[in-house]
Amino acid sequence: MIKAKTRTQETEGPEVRAFGRENALTDRIIGAAIEVHRHLGPGWLESAYEECLCHELSILGIPFRRQVPLTVDYKGLNLECAYKLDLLVDETIIVEIKAVEEFSPIHHSQLLTYLKLSDKRVGLLINFHVPVLKNGLKRIVNHYIGPALSPRTSASSVFDGPDENDSPQASSEASLTQKPSAQSPPLRASAIRSGPQVTL
């Protein structure tokens, strides 16, 4: 029995362990967002939701940074504040906060661009302007493996998908409603639970 367990552990590489850590962290972020939505509901400004979500993360002891500038190099021109991330949680998960009727393709491409430029793998789109928060959650997964990229095209064309010159693993997204896959495991059901409810 012990030997079997050892063999299983040996098959779990760094990538598998990283996904497990990211899943656990996104569970906690979503729990904090649900608590904010339970108290505020829809209809507030994004800045109010951001402030309250940061407060919840602080209560939970989860480290984060707000409005993180993302430097971009464009043909030798250093753009210091080309982008700002709403939240960077534990230097791992990028969180973009929205208060809109529904997500649009530009929201997805914006977060995917952030993930590529910062060389992060997982991001959360959280839309608080919904009656039930689970309908306002979207996870975006960047499958590009390599150094942080400098932009060579627009965010909208990035969302349209890779062209013939792009890596087949350049981009992908995973939502809460998608079936599990080997490349992008979905958020666990424990992230959204009933009972006392603690989203260029």
In whole angstroms, the N-to-C terminal distance is 53 Å
Note the overall shape: globular
Q: Please count the beta strands (DSSP E, at least 2 residues each).
A: 6
Q: Helical element count? A: 5
Q: How are the strands of the biggest sheet laid out side by side? A: 1-2-3-4-5-6
What does this protein structure show overall?
The protein is of the alpha+beta class and 200 residues long. The chain has one domain. The chain is 36% helix and 22% strand. It contains 5 helices and 6 strands. The protein has helices spanning 2-11, 14-40, 46-60, 105-118, 155-159; strands at residues 64-74, 77-89, 93-98, 122-127, 137-141, 172-175. The chain has a 6-stranded mixed beta sheet with strand order 1-2-3-4-5-6, sandwiched between helices. Helix 2 (14-40) crosses helix 3. The longest helix has 27 residues, at 14-40. The N and C termini lie far apart (53 Å). Residues 1-11, 153-185 and 189-200 have low confidence and may be disordered.
Produce a short descriptive summary.
This protein has 200 residues and is an alpha+beta fold. The protein contains five helices and six strands.
Which structural traits does this protein have?
200 residues; alpha+beta; 6-stranded mixed β-sheet; 5 helices; 6 strands; 36% helix; 22% strand; disordered N terminus
